[in-house]
Write a structure and sequence with these properties.
- It is a single chain.
- By secondary structure, the protein is of the alpha+beta class.
- About 8% of the residues have low confidence.
- It is elongated and about 70 Å long.
Length: 109
C-alpha cells in the first residue's frame, strides 16, 4: 500500500512540475514598421518555429530563447542571428546583437 501511495505522490508531483513550465514570451504574431525594411511581421509558434514576412520576403525558420536572447535561423539566411529582446505587455523590442537590420519595436496582433 505504501508503494502505491508513494507512486501516486510522485506522479502528482511530476504533473504539477510539468504545468509550471516556462512560457514562451515571444509566442504570437508581432508587427512593426521598420522604415527601409517595411512592415515586418514575426510569428513565433511557442515551439521553436518562426515565420517572417515583409513586402520583400516570406520565410520560415526556427528560434531558440536563452534569457533575453533569441537566436533566429531563417531559411534564406546563411547564419543565424541573435537578438536581445524585451516584452512589455503588447510591445516587443528586438535589437540584433551585431547591429544589423530588423531592429525595432513590434506590437502584438
Amino acid at each position: 500500500m505504501k508503494k502505491i501511495v508513494s507512486l501516486l505522490l510522485i506522479v502528482s508531483l511530476l504533473l504539477v512540475l510539468a504545468a509550471c513550465g516556462s512560457k514562451d514570451a515571444l509566442a504570437g504574431t508581432w508587427t512593426g514598421d521598420l522604415g527601409l525594411d517595411g512592415v515586418v511581421t514575426w510569428t513565433f509558434d511557442g515551439n521553436g518555429k518562426v515565420k517572417f514576412e515583409n513586402e520583400f520576403s516570406k520565410q520560415d525558420g526556427t528560434y531558440t530563447i536563452s534569457g533575453d536572447q533569441v537566436t533566429i535561423q531563417l531559411e534564406l539566411w546563411d547564419d543565424a542571428q541573435t537578438f536581445t529582446f524585451s516584452v512589455d505587455g503588447n510591445s516587443l523590442t528586438m535589437n540584433e546583437n551585431s547591429g544589423g537590420g530588423l531592429c525595432g519595436t513590434y506590437e502584438k496582433k
